């Protein structure tokens, strides 16, 4: 869409606040407060949005995530996107459409698929990650979700072997391990993220030859690597999408540089579409649950011959 006439500074500030207000109902935060949050509590995001508004351009959001399906069969239906991703993509596209109603140039979300960044650390083959990302692109095209796009390591480093791609990204962008360890010891938010990722790694391990304590030690070690690679991917995204508003699927503090966003209803703030399946409740609403639990609550629904989700009658 061509740029529109740029509003003045005051109008741009007001419109930017209205755009951010559309995101607030889905804000996922680490802060424990019942007090209402206003757009003014997010100066970083307001400045970024205002840059697009003043230029009369679509607001661009980057969202790291949609890496691949969990390797644990008790959590997901397979290694390809299903109804959980389909609903999440529709939500993001609808959110962009809502923005378009008040800012005609609209908005777009770049899904920064990060599976290859740490596939070796989470036990998912690169071939499965490629298949997931390719199916995600196809799903976006078939569903005519034109406001969404996918960005992954293939867009940056082409046909290099994935181990070489990971090594390059890590060497250029990842924080030193000693610095990360020190941060996790002293920063509560970093420590919570580390513990959350460790828990996910333990839960995602379907078979481990050693003891439970050995598995936990191994996952704590790998969690540092996942955070290093995640930080590296964030640095690469910032370099390639310098003006974008950064979203996150993880809870974020109010006023931080990242805006945490909830894609679908779930009982746990850390549950994502790729770690769970969609359950269509009897009242017509959707939620995310581990596959084993959803199977106890509903019947399996197929779509195009493949498992899609569970439904309650």
* Mean pLDDT across residues: 92
H/E element string?
A: HHEHEHHEHHHHHEEEEHEE
Radius of gyration: 20 Å
Number of strands: 9
Report the uncertain regions.
none
The portion of residues assigned to helices is 40-55%
Strand content is 5-15%
| Morphology | globular
Counted by DSSP, the helix tally is 11
Give the termini distance in whole angstroms: 44 Å
Q: What's the story with the biggest beta sheet?
A: 5 strands, parallel
What is the structural class? alpha/beta
Major sheet strand order: 3-2-1-4-5
Report on the structure:
With 313 residues, this protein is of the alpha/beta class. It contains eleven helices and nine strands. Strand 6 (277-280) and strand 7 (286-289) form a beta hairpin. It is globular, with a radius of gyration of 20 Å. The relative contact order is 0.16. The model has no long low-confidence stretch (mean pLDDT 92).
């Amino acid at each position: 869409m061509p740029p529109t006439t740029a509003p003045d500074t005051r109008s741009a500030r007001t419109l930017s606040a209205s755009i951010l207000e559309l995101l607030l109902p889905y804000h996922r935060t680490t802060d424990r407060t019942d007090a209402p949050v206003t757009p003014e509590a997010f100066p970083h995001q307001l400045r970024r949005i205002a840059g697009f508004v003043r230029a009369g351009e679509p607001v661009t959001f980057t969202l790291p995530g949609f890496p691949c399906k969990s390797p644990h069969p008790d959590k997901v239906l397979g290694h390809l996107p299903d109804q959980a991703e389909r609903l999440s993509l529709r939500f993001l596209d609808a959110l962009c459409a809502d923005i378009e109603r008040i800012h005609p140039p609209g908005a777009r979300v770049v899904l920064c698929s990060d599976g290859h960044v740490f596939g070796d650390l989470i036990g998912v083959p690169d071939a499965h990650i490629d298949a997931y990302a390719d199916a995600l692109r196809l799903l976006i095209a078939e569903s005519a979700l034109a406001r969404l796009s996918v960005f992954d390591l293939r867009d940056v480093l082409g046909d290099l072997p994935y181990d070489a791609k990971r090594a390059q990204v890590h060497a250029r962008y990842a924080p030193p391990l000693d610095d990360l360890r020190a941060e996790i010891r002293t920063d509560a938010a970093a420590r919570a993220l580390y513990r959350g990722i460790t828990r996910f790694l333990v839960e995602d391990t379907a078979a481990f030859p050693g003891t439970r304590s050995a598995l936990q030690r191994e996952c704590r070690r790998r969690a540092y690597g996942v955070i290093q690679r995640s930080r590296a991917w964030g640095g690469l995204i910032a370099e390639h999408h310098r003006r974008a508003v950064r979203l996150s699927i993880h809870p974020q503090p109010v006023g931080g540089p990242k805006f945490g966003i909830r894609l679908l209803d779930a009982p746990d703030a850390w549950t994502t579409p790729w770690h769970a399946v969609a359950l269509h409740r009897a009242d017509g609403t959707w939620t995310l649950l581990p596959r084993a639990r959803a199977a106890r609550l509903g019947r399996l629904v197929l779509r195009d011959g493949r498992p899609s989700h569970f439904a309650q009658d």
